[in-house]
TrEMBL record:
Signal peptide: none
Name of the featured protein: Universal stress protein
Keyword Transport recorded: no
Protein family per UniProt: Belongs to the universal stress protein A family.
SUPFAM superfamilies: Adenine nucleotide alpha hydrolases-like (SSF52402)
Cellular localization per UniProt: Cytoplasm
GO terms for cellular component: cytoplasm
Keywords, alphabetical: Cytoplasm
Protein origin, superkingdom: Bacteria
Residue ranges occupied by any UspA domain in the UniProt entry: 1-140
Length: 141
């Protein structure tokens, strides 16, 4: 049924729960597994036109890569060699664009852990992707 399954990895427990579900499905359907993390470089703090980006972006990328490395180890331990991609930009846009461009059949994401106050102003990545993607999505608690 599914040939390419993407898992959004953000380092949260729910993203690793999503990974577990995706691994089970990838085995069941003999599907390729894509692990994707997005460094949010679109909303970095600015101060009078001076970006904090150089060191901050490197720190964010290092952290995201560690999360992807952990997810890769989990997948390999389960007998799957995943495709791994570290993207940068606005996570909602990247997680809507990347699956279309790569022929992904299913997106697996963890349920948001954002509190309701923050969700009103920032928005949930999971919710955005579920509302703006025409690809099947599995949301895992």
């Amino acid at each position: 049924m599914y040939k390419k399954i993407l898992v959004a990895i953000d380092g949260s427990q729910s993203s690793y729960n999503a990974l577990d579900a995706a691994i089970d499905m990838a085995k069941q359907f003999k599907a390729a597994l894509y692990l994707v993390s997005v460094v949010n470089t679109a909303n970095l703090p600015m101060n009078v036109g001076v970006s904090y980006a150089p060191g901050l972006v490197n720190d964010l990328k290092t952290s995201a890569q560690k999360d992807l490395d952990k997810a890769t180890d989990i997948a390999k331990h389960a007998g799957i060699s995943p495709y791994v991609q570290l993207l940068d930009g606005e996570p909602r846009e990247q997680l809507t664009r990347f699956p279309k461009e790569n022929g992904i059949d299913l997106i697996v994401m963890g349920k948001t852990g954002t509190n309701s106050f923050t969700r009103v102003f920032v928005g949930s990545v999971t919710r955005y992707v579920s509302e703006h993607s025409d690809i099947n999505i599995l949301i895992v608690a």
